[in-house]
Structure formats: structure tokens, C-alpha cells
Amino acid sequence: MIELIDRLMVRGRLEQKEISELLRFRKPETVEYLFEKARMVRAGNRRKAAEIWGRIPVSSYCKYNCKMCGLRRDNQFAKRYRMDEKTVLSCCMQYYRQGVRGFYLESGDDIALSEKNMAQLLLGIAERLENVKVVLAMGEKPLSAYAHWKQIGADGYVLYHGCANEQQFKKIYPSNMSPLLRKQCLWGLKEYGYQAGTGFLVGLPYQTMDDVAADICFIREFCPSIIDVGAFVPALHTPFERERSGNGEVVLQIIAIFRIMFPEAHIIADPTLDRVMQNGRFRALDAGADVLLVDALEGGWLEQYQVYERRTGRLSAPVDNVEQCREQLRMRGLSL
User: Fold this and answer.
1) What domains lie within the chain, and their CATH numbers?
2) Is-contact 158 136, C-beta < 8 A?
3) Cα separations (Å) of 153 from 209, 260, 322, 331?
4) What is the 3-class SS of the chain, one letter each residue?
5) What is the pTM assigned to this prediction?
6) Which of 220, 211, 224 minimizes the C-alpha distance to 250?
7) Is 309 within 8 Å of 280 (Cβ atoms)?
8) How far apart are CA 51 and CA 133, in angstroms?
9) How far, in Å, CA of 168 to CA of 162, rounded?
10) Residues 128-156, buried b or exposed e (16+ Cβ, 10 A)?
11) Cα–Cα separations (whole angstroms), residue 134 to 16, 122, 213, 325
12) Contact at 8 Å (CB) between 42 and 290?
């Protein structure tokens, strides 16, 4: 395994079988060696810098019926809401007052979030706040909308590709959802100049380690600017509500692999990691991540945005303290 990690360091890539082998057969000393190399790459190429992005859950409506998501269309128990422009701007101001300069606007695939509505919102942010980064995660939209939003101020866009294995994709996602369309949207985002991002969940039902390796290889070929790998966390009132959560240790390894593959990419320390392991996001920073995604909003929005269960066993998801998050970054030698 040490030889595979050294090969990854030299070549910047591994073949699918090699990735699968590295993830399957791991020892603590091997994993720590991988993390050490990932941190070394980050220090050399990111100048020990990190960012904090504040997540804003804009809408809990979704047109799709994905089997693992609490926002799925057929979940009659989901709390549905849609923030208006004033509310989103208020959330941005909450983060801004806490010194956060990156906003991660996320929602279900809500058809009511039109090109015009989002454009008006982006203009409102640009008029009121200076030197901020806006990253969107709004699902599949017309290419014209992507082009318009980029033109008026959106910096990045994250769209999970789902599953590279189409057979697995069909088991997880609804029949009216196309893996080809997802990929076309991703390439469109790149064409329009976005910091284009993608990712996937680890630990989904039916997923094998070979599937995970295939997802890594797809992302390797896509060469994203933003990478978000999360752990599957069951959500109530979904077909997968009784399934086991994903393995956070595997997610950390994948983050380290991606850091070595993509020295300059933004790699997100995803909040799902805190649901499957203690201090999951901060351990992701130790594995090479450089973006801490925080939930620090007042007003109860996070309790309504139930993509997954925010309390699992002994682990829960309280509102983040941004200053404590900064201290965790400083303790790891990461500047903002």
C-alpha cells in the first residue's frame, strides 16, 4: 500500500483497480502515511490556507424522488419551505457579521428557483456585500441559467454526479433522473467558467468498493475545482431509513487521495462526517480538505432542511460556533 501511495504522489493518479485495492486493504500506519502526504501536498500548493463557507439551505422542495434523501418528493413528512430573497440576504448578513466570506447556497432540485429569481438574489448579494464568494448547489438547471448566474456573480456550482456505475445509479435514483444529463450539466458548468464541483456519497446501499473507485476515476477525468465527498446518513421516511450509515474512515481516505490528485482543488469537509464519526469535519482537514462547511444560522432553518438525520445515536448536529471553527483551523496550522 505504501508503494501505491508513492506511485500516486509521483504520477498524480492511480488506475481503478489500484484505487480499489488501496481502499480495501488499509492499516493505521498506511492511512496515516496517506494523510501525511495529502497534508504535504496541501501545504505546498495551497500555502496552508483554508476557507470557511456558510451553508444556506434555500429550499426544501425537490422534484426528484431519490431513495436516500429526506427531501425526496414523496416524503409527506418533510417540512417544506422556500426562502424569499429577503431571508436569504439576512442569512448572508448573519454569516458576514461572523467573518464568513463564502456562502454555499443549497437546495433540493426546486423548479420554482428559476433563472430570474436566482439572478435577482445574486444581484442583491453583490450589491450589499463585497469580497464574498457565492457557491451554488441547486441541482439541474437549463444551461442558459448557468450562464446567466455566472455572468452576474456566482463563483462556483456543485452538482453531485451521483454514481458513475449506471446500474447502481438506477438502484438509487428515480427513473426520470438521467446520469447523462447530470454529466452534461457538469460539463456545461465548466464551459461557462464556474469553479465546477461534483462528488458522491460513500456507503450507499448496493455500493461496492469497485463502485467507489469508479466514482473516483470519473472525478479524476472531470478535473473539478470543488470536490465534496460525504458519508451516507439514513433519513427518516425514505426507502433507506433502516440502512447503515457510511464509513467515515473511507471518506477520509478518499479526501486524501483527491488532495494528492488535485493539489489546487477546494475539497470540502462535509457536515455528514460529523454524523458518522466524532469530529468528522476536523479529521477531514487532517486528511487534506481545505474548506470547512459550517451550519451557523439562527432561525431553525437547519431543522427543517432534513436531507439526512441530524441526530444519529450519540452524535448530533448543533449550530456551529464560527470562532471555535477558526480556532480548530489555527490549531492545524491553517490560515484563513
Assistant:
1) 2-331 (3.20.20.70)
2) yes
3) 38, 30, 25, 33
4) CHHHHHHHHHHCCCCHHHHHHHHHCCCHHHHHHHHHHHHHHHHHHCCCECEEEEEEEEECCCCCCCCCCCCCCCCCCCCCCECCHHHHHHHHHHHHHCCCCEEEEEECCCCCCCHHHHHHHHHHHHHHCCCCEEEEECCCCCHHHHHHHHHCCCCEEECCCCCCCHHHHHHHCCCCCCHHHHHHHHHHHHHCCCEEEEEEEECCCCCCHHHHHHHHHHHHHHCCCEEEEEECCCCCCCCCCCCCCCCHHHHHHHHHHHHHHCCCCEEEECCCHHHHCCCHHHHHHHCCCCEEEECCCCCCHHHHCCCCCCEECCEECCCCCHHHHHHHHHHCCCEC
5) 0.95
6) 211
7) no
8) 10
9) 9
10) ebeebbbbbbbbbbeeebbbbbbeebbbb
11) 33, 8, 30, 20
12) yes
Smallest Cα–Cα separation from 104: which of 168, 154, 44, 68?
154
Of 80, 14, 63, 69, the C-alpha closest to 234 is 69
| Residue with cell string 442583491 | 124
pLDDT, tens digit only, all 336 positions of the chain: 889 999 999 999 999 999 999 999 888 999 999 999 999 999 987 656 899 999 999 999 999 999 999 999 999 999 999 999 999 999 999 999 999 999 999 999 999 999 999 999 999 999 999 999 999 999 999 999 999 999 999 999 999 999 999 999 999 999 999 999 999 999 999 999 999 999 999 999 999 999 999 999 999 999 999 999 999 999 999 999 999 999 999 999 999 999 999 999 999 999 999 999 999 999 999 999 999 999 998 767 777 888 886 665 555 567 889 999 999 999 998 887
